[in-house]
Design brief:
Elements lengths: L7 H13 L5 E4 L8 E2 L18 E2 L45 H18 L3 E4 L7 H17 L6 E4 L6 H4 L8
Parallel strand pairs: 1-4, 4-5
Antiparallel strand pairs: 2-3
């Protein structure tokens, strides 16, 4: 917890007291992007490059991400998203924010560990999932059942997750609706 906002104990207290009053607390969960600590000196960066083409990535400074995402191999090297309606470009950076390789088993497991930790520590009611369409569907099919299983272990029978899909039409959004997986 950022010390400007309190402590983990205060976060847990907020959730506990809100729940006692019938108020659910949801945390904003982001899995596909981080800050802007990565760049490339390759020509054309940061225009989008479709795989297998990629840029050679570098850290902006010696102050880069701590574990578990402290290796450039955990990030896409395709540059920035040029067309937000092109589903292939989910591999690109969203607004110059470093894009995690959520299709990678290590990254998936680390994301699960991180958000299970927050569930353990706070008893949060659920998560609002940021930028859902910028993460491949396979990630959600793996990640959300894992969180639901954790909620069951914690006795949180009302655990709920809902996602943001900006600018998508109803036909596109339909693939994300329901309880499949």
């Amino acid at each position: 917890v950022d010390p400007n906002f309190g402590t983990m104990a205060k976060a847990k207290q907020l959730v506990t007291e809100a729940n006692a009053m019938g108020i659910a607390i949801y945390f904003d969960l982001v899995v596909n992007h981080c800050a802007d600590q990565i760049y490339s000196t390759d020509s054309g960066f940061s225009a989008y490059k479709a795989p297998p083409a990629a840029y050679n990535l570098r850290w902006r400074s010696s102050l880069h991400y701590p574990p578990p995402f402290n290796s450039l191999t955990y990030f896409h090297a395709q540059g920035g998203i040029g067309n937000y309606n092109d589903p292939e470009q989910i591999l690109g950076e969203l607004s110059n924010l470093d894009d995690l390789r959520t299709e990678d088993a290590y990254v998936r497991d680390a994301c699960g560990d991180i958000w299970e930790y927050w569930m353990d520590q706070t008893g949060v009611s659920g998560f609002r999932l940021d930028t859902v369409k910028h993460v491949e569907v396979g990630f959600w099919e793996d990640f959300l059942p894992r969180l639901q299983a954790k909620a069951t272990v914690l006795g949180n029978d009302n655990f709920f997750a809902f996602g943001e899909i900006y600018g998508a039409d109803d036909t596109y959004m339909a693939k994300y609706l329901g309880t499949m997986n």
